[in-house]
Amino acid sequence: MSLPHALLGLLAVEPASGYALTKAFDESLGRYAWYAGHTSIYPELGRLAERGLVEVTAEGPRGSRTYAVTDAGRDELRSWLLTRPSEAGKVRNESVLRMFLLSALDPADARTVLTGIAADARAGADELRTIRADHPGPLTGRNGFGQLAAEFGLRQYEAVHEWATWALDQLGAQTPDDRTDAADPAHTF
Amino acid sequence: MSLPHALLGLLAVEPASGYALTKAFDESLGRYAWYAGHTSIYPELGRLAERGLVEVTAEGPRGSRTYAVTDAGRDELRSWLLTRPSEAGKVRNESVLRMFLLSALDPADARTVLTGIAADARAGADELRTIRADHPGPLTGRNGFGQLAAEFGLRQYEAVHEWATWALDQLGAQTPDDRTDAADPAHTF
DNA sequence: TTCTGACATGTCACATTTGACATGTCAGAA
DNA sequence: TTCTGACATGTCAAATGTGACATGTCAGAA
Lengths: 189, 189
Fold this sequence. Notes:
The structure is a homodimer.
Chain A: H1 3-13, E1 16-17, H2 18-32, H3 38-50, E2 54-59, E3 65-69, H4 71-82, E4 91-93, H5 94-100, H6 107-134, H7 144-170, H8 176-179
Antiparallel strand pairs in A: 1-3, 2-3
Chain A binds a DNA duplex through residues 1, 3, 17-19, 22, 36-40, 42-43, 60-65.
């Protein structure tokens, strides 16, 4: 279970409320790495506080509580990150599952789905390129997650696009949607 | 919950026993898309059989039962795959989580971990290139998952390697060994 | 002033997953 | 023959996660 370490990691960068953490999961972290809803986050913060890994450092308006990681929490996070796990962690990713299950469809259906995947990947990559251009910043600290996520996500989308293109090629198909804007430099992979 | 569809997808390609499905999850599917252990798979096969989406078509030695997808199951799978979900599915990937949490470490530690990630990614890519060279095959049918997984995984590893290289570059040219300024890790940000 | 939407935290029943435990078969090697 | 390891399936308690429901604050717009 990685949720406590995800929370520790976010709080190690900057103290935050449960609400702010929930937004971080929705935006950067949860999109590529580890999703969690507020109904898991709030109870887990309580458990981390009981274990002395985080503490409430401030209370604000609307009952908000700001949590910060303690020294013990920082030690726990650091040792978790520096210990390389022997086995690869379990993966759950519905999008990727859908991609793999294509081999169970007949080629016509597979082509339809692959075309959609390629288009989505291109759109996702374009979006992240825009975000990257608008938000430069340092790799560590409060911008770190966003930067790492954007750069990782961009390469991820590009890889998916290349993969989908390869798969379509294997199926002996053209990708009509995908070729219409091929001349636009902003859309060139 | 995607497990039933994952099973349907595997069985749509080729009838298999619970044991064989478990191995498929351990090998191709579970490495990149969706992990499940035998303790989820066997009960889920029972539920799918109750719903008439799969059926037992043969019984073999050691009590093994071969399941095959029914017409109803094939319909269910096809409509699931052809319906594009409005929201991106929830992602759980401990490896990626570890990458993102790097921004909570001081640069020296981050560099150590990133170097390991880059090395792992390179090794993974090399391994898959070897596998690909040794096992050519068609995209659909019983080899489909393996082919899709290998090609996807290869691009994934390459993307991770590029990303880790980019991140190391962002952290500066300094190597961990070169580092002489002993800043307190807890107060780096 | 009233309303809307973001802020902010929580509980609880239900579903799902995990890890430990359990059982037994069969082929091939020592 | 005995032993080992892969084959093959299962249960069950405990841990976790999900979605629905619940409550209330505060700022700014209409």
